[in-house]
Amino acid sequence: MAFRQVLQLAACGLAGGSAAVLFSAVAVGKPRAGGDAEPRVVEPPAWAGAARPGPGVWDPNWDRREPLSLVNLRKRNLESGEEELASRLDHYKAKATRHIFLIRHSQYHVDASLEKDRTLTPLGREQAELTGLRLASLGLKFNKIVHSSMTRAIETTDIISKHLPGVRKVSTDLLREGAPIEPDPPVSHWKPEAVYYEDGARIEAAFRNYIHRADAKQQEDSYEIFICHANVIRYIVCRALQFPPEGWLRLSLNNGSITHLVVRPDGRVALRTLGDTGFMPPDKISRS
To answer: Can you tell me which family this protein belongs to (predicted)?
Structure first.
């Protein structure tokens, strides 16, 4: 392949991505001689990058880990040329698959005024036990449990982790519940306490930090558990599948449910399960 073609591929690989989540082109009126308004498209700012591919086009560099986008083409060795480039690309290629299990916390006391008092209900504790048993029954070697620092997520984690001895736990504020982005279509009965502007940036940061293809140094497939909240999980699913993130509120998740995302080495993402609670008896299922 000629080096010029490689550059063209690089440009395609770098096109699109999460910039579209942060900036959308808008049509404005441009006066014409006859007085009518002619729509024109405002170009995105430089920091937003190139335009996102059109509908139905998957962006292979959605996580900014496409090998070609990680190589500094300007520093290539002019003597070795394409042979050296191929070697460097191989150095950045992911080799393993990441299995990401997103767990919604169990039922909790929603009427408590303070967050620290929003502990799990007796039913919630039963749900966490059932979820822990389900995860243990899969027979997988889980690498870690990353959980939200909110009380209900911590308690859910403590119960689930009893069924997965030896799996290390990591707490993070990034996965705390919040309002990721204003839903479309809007709903009048759902008014988040937090500001979209603040929570959205944090939840998007959680997505970028945790949801991506495996590091090139990772040799074996990984199985990771993230215990957090419905809004966070729903937003992550939309972003990972490159669905419009504004549609996150259209998804519904039960307490203690399991959502399974798979991220392949080539960056392709598959949704194995969404909000699975089939392992719970009907009288143990809730969505509070």
So the answer is: Belongs to the phosphoglycerate mutase family. BPG-dependent PGAM subfamily.
Give dist(CA 80, CA 117) in Å, integer. 64
* Length of the chain as a residue count: 288
Give the integer Cα–Cα distance in Å for 261 and 177: 20
Distance CA 60, CA 269 (A): 10
CA atoms within 13 A on the CB side of 61: 21
What phi, psi does 263 have (nearest 5°)? -115, 110
Strand-pair category, 269-276 with 258-263: antiparallel
Contact predicate 62/17, CB 8 Å? yes
pTM (predicted TM-score):
0.79
Whether residue 154 contacts residue 171, with contact meaning beta carbons closer than 8 Å, is answered with yes
Which residue's structure tokens are 């419905």? 230
- The 10s digit of each residue's pLDDT in 31-63 is 444 444 444 444 444 333 444 555 568 999 999
Q: Is 26 exposed, middle or buried (0-12, 13-18, 19+ CB in 10 A)?
A: exposed
Helices (H) and strands (E) in the chain, counts: 8, 8
3-state SS, 170-182, equals EEECCCCCCCCCC
Taking the C-alpha atoms of residue 224 and residue 142, their distance in angstroms, rounded to an integer, is 6
> What does 142-178 look like in DSSP terms, one character per residue?
--EEEEESSHHHHHHHHHHHTTSTT-EEEEESTTS--
State pLDDT tens for residues 111-167: 999 999 999 999 999 999 999 999 999 999 999 999 999 999 999 999 999 999 999
Both tokens of 4, joined, read 């010029």
